[in-house]
Amino acid sequence: MNNKIGLFSFFAGAGFLDLGFERTGQFEILFVNEFHKPFMDIYKNARQELGITAPRFGHHINDANDFLAAPKLQEFDTYINEAKKEFEIVGFVGGPPCPDFSVGGKNRGKEGENGKLSGTYTELICKAKPDFFLFENVKGLWRTKKHRVFYESLKEKFIKNGYLVTERLINSIEFGVPQDRDRIILIGFKKEFLFLNNYKTDGTHLLWNFDWGFSIKYDKKEVFELAWPIRDTFIEDSIKKKPDGLPIELTIQYWFDKNDVLNHPNSKSYFTPQAGLSKFRIVDEGDDGKKSYKRLHRWRYSPTAAYGNNEVHLHPYKARRISVSEALAIQSLPKEFVISDNASLTNSFKAIGNGVPFLAAKGLAINILNFLNILTNDKYRHYGETDNTKHNLLYKPVTQAKQLSILERDYSKIKINESFSRTN
After folding, report:
1. Which residue range(s) make up the domain with 377?
2. Where are the alpha helices (DSSP H) in 137-178?
3. Could you give the CA distance from residue 287 to residue 327 in angstroms, rounded to a whole number?
4. Which of 133, 278, 389, 393 falls between 20 and 30 A from 111, CA-CA?
5. Looking at the annotation, which residues are catalytic?
6. CATH number at residue 407
7. Residues 260-298 pLDDT 10s
8. What's the CA gap between 288 and 310, in Å, rounded?
9. Quick one: how far is CA 147 from the chain centroid?
10. Does residue 390 carry a pLDDT above 50?
11. What angle do CA 322, 328, 332 make, to 5 degrees?
């Protein structure tokens, strides 16, 4: 048996989620699915540059629905059976495309072409029955009333198909990412696997002792309540003193420096306006409240890295949009992660904006390993924490599982917002 945990990755995009799992040292990507060929090209080229071996079951540029019907179904079943023979644990990870559940996107819900893929991913999991799965999506799928019913139906299907589940609305800043980015994460483990490992349930369908806080480094409420700089007059190539009393490692400038973005291979990759350069000069540093033309503040975290739907994120102190290297830094990617010059700027920024931030992905992987270690007497050691830096006022170890209350209370009694104003 292989000592690593085998993973099947769906809707892989540029591979940030996969890389986060792999960098713990305990997961091996066996199978990769992505519908959009330019994203798959970015995935393959970046990993080749990182020296990562190609997945043994290949890269599959297909609609995920293809694996539910012949001839792809038989091929897929073969991969699953081979993986289960070689690996003690096999998991599925993926974040189905989310614009149909996002207020900032199409908001078409389960009837949209992307929205239907959440149902497809659920069906794949229930048919293949991996030992565990991770499902990632925008908070609109959970918080918005018209989408919440669909989300509950997906979760109910997992439960009926033999999974115990746990979920949490995470924010990437909790893991050390310099970005305010909410996402709903649903994790499930197959009952059969749990019982074979002597797991004691609490009589519900919850993974009652899954510790969501194990790899969390920052209390998001305390972070957002700090006295961050708000707006300053834009002065090109200006120098601003680093503020005191703030966790600098959560700022854009810290990550720009950490990743040496001006000397990164993608440093010159940014959109050059045909017109409107004057507008780039009148937006204040830190003025990120508009739908478009958001200027980031160097000594603050970024709003959600969403580079589609006409969003334009401006460099804090240069009269231009941010570059690909800067966007990768905001997504907390290692500095050695490079996007090929063959990728268009549009595809590069879309792939970056769609991805799970690297440190959040690694943190989620570590939480899963921590849960598995409870079952296996610490068999799965990981490579370090999500980062070595800690801010003594904000670091908050959590010893008890933080479940979303939707699994513990009557759904009909929960107040759900019809809509919300922040972009997902």
Report:
1. 5-214+358-413
2. 140-143, 145-160
3. 18
4. 133
5. 98
6. 3.40.50.150
7. 999 999 999 999 887 667 888 999 999 998 888 999 999
8. 14
9. 20
10. no
11. 125
